[in-house]
Amino acid sequence: MMPSTTDRALSTPLKVLLYGLLGVVSLIVVLTVVSFVFELVWGLIGLLFGIVSLAATIGVLAALGYAVYWLASTVIGGDDETASATDVSQARGTDAAGTTGADGPDPVERLSERYANGEIAEAELERRLERVLDDPSADDATAEFERERELN
């Protein structure tokens, strides 16, 4: 059986109303999703700018801190490199007994330390030791070292 014209007439406004309502709901859903995506993108861009701003602020503060350190060390004159070099030269100027030699550390000790640190090879050590030991200005410690070397 076929629907009557009245049934068709009544159903057309309902269909229009139903499709209209469906269209409005679809539009709201699409606009909500698009809005969410834009807010997410803008939030990520804001976060990125925040991180860049934080990094720039930390960099500027570090540069200012270093400038203050450099200025203070220049004005005061307490340069770390000068202090370390002075400490090292004073430490090398003492022998095993803790006394300071007139012309610095013993050449034999220096050569032995350089060999122990791997700075020179054994052949180079022997060549330089012979040169040092042949020097007439060698002191008693050098002569003692030579005697020990001959025994070994």
Name the overall outline: rod-shaped
The assigned structural class equals mainly alpha
Query: Helical proportion?
Result: over 70%
Query: Helix and strand string, N-terminal first?
Result: HHHHH
Overall structural domain count: 2
Identify the quaternary structure here: single chain
Strand content: under 5%
The chain-level mean pLDDT equals 78
First-residue to last-residue Cα separation:
126 Å
Tally of helical segments: 5
| Count of distinct strands | 0
Instruction: Return residue spans where pLDDT drops below 50 for at least 5 consecutive residues.
Output: 82-89, 92-100
Radius of gyration over C-alpha positions, nearest whole angstrom = 44 Å
Q: How does the major sheet shape up?
A: none
Describe it.
With 152 residues, the chain is an all-alpha fold. The protein has helices at 5-76, 80-92, 107-116, 122-134, 140-151. It has two domains: 17-79; 102-152, no CATH class. Helix content is 79%, strand content 0%. Helix 3 (107-116) runs antiparallel to helix 4 (122-134). The longest helix is centred in the first third of the chain and has 72 residues, at 5-76. The protein is rod-shaped, with a radius of gyration of 44 Å. Mean pLDDT is 78; it is low at 82-89 and 92-100. Residues 83-109, 132-152 are annotated as: Disordered. Residues 93-105 have a biased composition (Low complexity). It comes from Haloarcula mannanilytica. This is SHOCT domain-containing protein.
